[in-house]
Write a structure and sequence with these properties.
The structure is a single chain. This protein has 165 residues and is an alpha/beta fold. A 6-stranded mixed beta sheet has the order 1-8-7-4-5-6, with helices on one face. A two-stranded antiparallel sheet has the order 2-3. A hairpin with a 4-residue loop joins strand 7 and strand 8. The longest helix has 17 residues. The radius of gyration is 14 Å and the shape is globular.
């Protein structure tokens, strides 16, 4: 799987925001925290708008996306926005070292086995899924460049303004 993801990274490295509305329930998961003990489940964040971000220490665009997502989360967290970052490094230490260089305040999870990206149909790094307050996937973002943040913020704001059912 790692070779396939790495190959896809090369293909998608220049991809911009996809913005596709999937309108499907986001696959459920429970994963261990990358930092500290315990787990997080997607279901814990029901009622919030969630930006589910898959990343790895070897992902160049992730060095730019994580801090910018951290800023967006800091700005909009009180309105019901959360970022969940799923690290896909086989070796947990690689993800921890990355976070020492690029610290974030949002929850970071670890999936060394790759079960969660398989459930989401991940095709490259970084890829993120915007999930509404009802647990429905509303957009997919493949690749990353800093200018993508304008569209990401607009999509998050749109979902924050929608009422949960």
């Amino acid at each position: 799987m790692r070779i396939g993801v790495l190959f896809s990274l090369l293909l998608l490295n220049f991809a911009s925001i996809a913005g596709a509305e999937t309108k499907q329930p986001a696959p459920a998961f429970t994963l261990p925290k990358l930092v500290g003990e315990g787990t997080y489940s997607l279901s814990q964040f029901r009622g919030q708008v969630v930006y589910l971000d898959f990343w790895a220490s070897w992902c160049g665009p992730c060095r730019k996306s994580l801090p910018l997502l951290n800023n967006l989360r800091g700005e909009l967290h009180q309105q019901g926005f959360e970022v969940l970052a799923v690290n896909l490094d086989e070796d947990k230490a690689s993800g921890l070292d990355f976070l020492k260089e690029v610290p974030v305040s949002y929850p970071t999870l670890h999936d060394a086995n790759g079960t969660t990206p398989n459930a989401y149909g991940l095709r490259g790094m970084p890829t993120s899924y915007l999930i509404d307050r009802n647990g429905i996937m509303r957009a997919v973002h493949m690749g990353f460049k800093p200018s993508d943040m304008t569209e990401i913020r607009a999509q998050v704001m749109q979902l924050l303004n929608e009422k949960a059912r």
